[in-house]
Amino acid sequence: MVITVKELFLRLTDDLEHIKLRQENQEIHNIKLLLKEQRQFDSNTLYIGRTSLLDKNNLSPIPAFLGIKDCSAPVEQLALCFTNCAFLKNNRDSHQFFNKAQDIISREQSFLHSSATLLHSLIKGRGLQYIIDMGYQLLNNPMLLVDSSYKLLAYTKKDQVNDLVWNELVTKGYCSYDLVSIFRKEGVVKKIAVSKDPLLTDTGFSEKIRRIHGKIIINNKLVGYLGVLEHNQKFREEDYRTIRLLCDVISEEMQKNRNYYHIKGLMYENLLIDLLDNTIQNKEHLQERLKTAGLKLESNLYLAVINFHNEDIANYHLVDYLRDYIDRLINYSKSIFYNNQIVVFLSLKDNQIHNAMSNLEKCLEDNDLHAGISDRFDNIVDLQRAYRQARKALELGTYLLSPLSLFNYSDYRIYHILNLAGEKYKLTDLFHPAPLVLKNYDAQNETNLYQTLYTYLSTDKNTMLSADRLFIHRNTMSYRLKQISEITSIDLDNFEECVQVYLTYKMLELTLPL
């Protein structure tokens, strides 16, 4: 941003009087001393001098003037000689004032340079570390960037800093529970959250090395913190604006990752994302972060993955609405946005499971959505495996046109196994011949033996239950089974052969509708 004459005069208002502005948005790029009887003037320059130096025969007004009234002409008459003007109060030193105004212009030009540098770093798209490196060049002080769970995202690597917070973050990659407790006790987190501008702290953990804290905001939610340490040089007044700009650029960079775009700024979100990305390898670190995030784990853990219609993915209002809706409906759930899907982490007691699943199904049905859900697990380390299960259940349930809204992985495990086999072998090479023989026989004779055998095997060879599901008499069911044995030559009392036939039906479901 270029400073205007109005903004410049406002910053100098304690030294000025008789301010007259006709074009208040005139940009000021330079400051020069007014020469005696000068007639040529630049439209973006502020001229400082004495009114006695004015050329009385010059008919063109000076674009911007600031000076000492040392002639007898009244202010109203002098004002006609300028487009914009102001006069120094009597007790002000003109040389000191010139330097003061020059410093303001220099800071503005420095800020413009900073803006261009940071914008260039954003355009280059080289990530958060590159932006932090550029920020270091502008501020000449080391800095740390953490997310809302106090996990380190980037930091200045050129300086060795002897500081408790710095050393812990750089060594561990996150802040310990004890350190976060200190932040909260000292009220720093709350102060940063409510402060409109970057916040300076010089007490508590900042007593030895002062620091300026900036906040990273996405969609009006606090998703991270930037800390700049007063290590190499003293803070300057202009550093606050540069840090605010740096935070804005970091926010834009982080929004390129849609996981951050829909984040609420809650500590558990980044922890779950890191677990799904498999970036937490140390069990001690995991336990520390679980404690810091306040994530309570019960003995029954599940993970659900909710899919969106393609046109809904870009609608972040819908994503936020659904996350809030789920978290209200199932108060022992934690939801995040991950890989263009809502991922719901459920930590349940035994007596909560049925109610949680019912509420999740209700949410899906109310919003015309589908989800896959993992097997039960009891160790959060297995979160990534549970995520793969839930995604595969969602994929297969959708592909097989299931009428349900919630697809349990346990119902699709066989299909998953066959999917994996199909990546290495042609599934048709693995078929038992009986199902296709029956399908052809049905087509020629208008019978229903193909479905009869599948139902019989699906009910664990329960003749009565199979008859009920097919809406036929038990004797009819027995007759059909005899037909099937004669046509296909399979032994329905042979467990191994029945398994092969059943798996063939499952393979056919992946290639042909039943």
CATH topology of the largest domain: Beta-Lactamase
Q: Identify the overall geometry.
A: elongated
Per CATH, which architecture of the largest domain? 2-Layer Sandwich
The number of domains: 4
- Spatial order of the strands in the main sheet? 1-5-4-3-2
The termini sit apart by 67 Å
Strand tally: 15
**CATH class annotation of the largest domain:** Alpha Beta
Rg (C-alpha, Å): 36 Å
Summarize the amount of helix as a percent range.
Answer: 40-55%
CATH superfamily of the largest domain: GAF domain
Q: Which spans of ≥5 residues are poorly predicted at pLDDT below 50?
A: none
Q: How much of the residues is beta strand, in percent?
A: 15-25%
By DSSP (H or I, 4+ residues per run), the number of helices equals 20
Largest sheet: 5 strands, mixed
Mean pLDDT value: 88
